[in-house]
């Protein structure tokens, strides 16, 4: 089996798709896995800006049929790389229209598709998830409750939902992603620091908070990476 394709999804704006992508890249690299980042948020390619000088990256518009063709070809040409896709808000439209292109080539690519679906506490996160799972039935889907939006028990809508059962029946996990202190996440976004760069350049206290958060991130996301 070649290395997996990971999707950091959620479709809703602002739920934490980008920060989850950063956490995932960090977790994979800490496990000595090489990463190819596909940034599909072409109007606000925040993760791409942070990582373009550090790892192999591609900007691909997944609202368009051509983007899905490029995605499959790039996955095919780089079998040894773990592909991490950062998605844009409202990405469900593209997934519903063209997701089949990827879904039906996974076998030829010899790769697993692993989705981390990031949610806040609102209902639409769950409705969009159902749509996504219908469009990409061959993906393993894990749900990532973003702890930035409250403690695990406050995600009652998801915790007690039917969709949770269907996620877990298919082998998916329900995870809780840790919250990073706002001033440190602001450092990453506003200074455009990748995590590695932040670990070199931030003041000691900020680095200590980042170190604490990263160790939580590795514990949580380490459960869903291959290798
Ligand atoms: N776990 C977290 N810890 C700290 N800050 C967070 C966390 N999750 C989200 N945030 C903050 O919330 C904001 C939105 O997060 P992020 O950019 O990751 O969301 P997104 O889903 O990628 O948004 P968009 O749809 O605009 O791409 C960011 O400013 C980020 O700092
Ligand atoms: Mg984003």
From TrEMBL:
Alphabetical list of InterPro entries matching this protein: CobQ/CobB/MinD/ParA_Nub-bd_dom (IPR002586), P-loop_NTPase (IPR027417)
Domain CobQ/CobB/MinD/ParA nucleotide binding, residue spans: 10-144
UniProt signal peptide: none
Source domain of life: Bacteria
Pfam families found in the cross-reference section: CbiA
The name this protein goes by in its record: CobQ/CobB/MinD/ParA nucleotide binding domain-containing protein
């Amino acid at each position: 089996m070649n290395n997996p394709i990971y999707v950091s999804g959620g479709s809703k704006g602002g739920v934490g798709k980008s920060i989850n992508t950063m956490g995932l890249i960090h977790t994979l690299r800490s496990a000595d896995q090489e990463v190819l980042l596909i940034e599909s948020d072409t109007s606000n390619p925040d993760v791409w800006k942070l990582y373009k000088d550090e790892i192999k990256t591609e900007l691909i518009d997944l609202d368009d049929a051509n983007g899905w063709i490029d995605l499959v070809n790039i996955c095919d040409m780089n079998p040894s790389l773990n592909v991490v896709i950062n998605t844009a808000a409202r990405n469900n439209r593209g997934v519903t229209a063209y997701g089949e292109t990827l879904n039906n080539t996974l076998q030829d690519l010899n790769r697993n598709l692993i989705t981390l679906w990031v949610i806040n506490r609102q209902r639409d996160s769950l409705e969009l998830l159902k749509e996504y799972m219908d469009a990409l039935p061959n993906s393993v889907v894990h749900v990532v409750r973003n702890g930035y939006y409250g403690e695990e028990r406050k995600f009652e809508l998801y915790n007690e939902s039917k969709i949770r059962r269907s996620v877990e029946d298919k082998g998916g996990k329900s995870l809780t992603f840790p919250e990073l202190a706002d001033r440190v996440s602001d450092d990453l976004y506003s200074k455009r620091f990748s995590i590695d760069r932040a670990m070199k350049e931030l003041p000691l206290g900020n680095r200590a908070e980042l170190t604490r958060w990263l160790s939580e991130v590795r514990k949580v996301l380490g459960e869903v990476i291959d290798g």
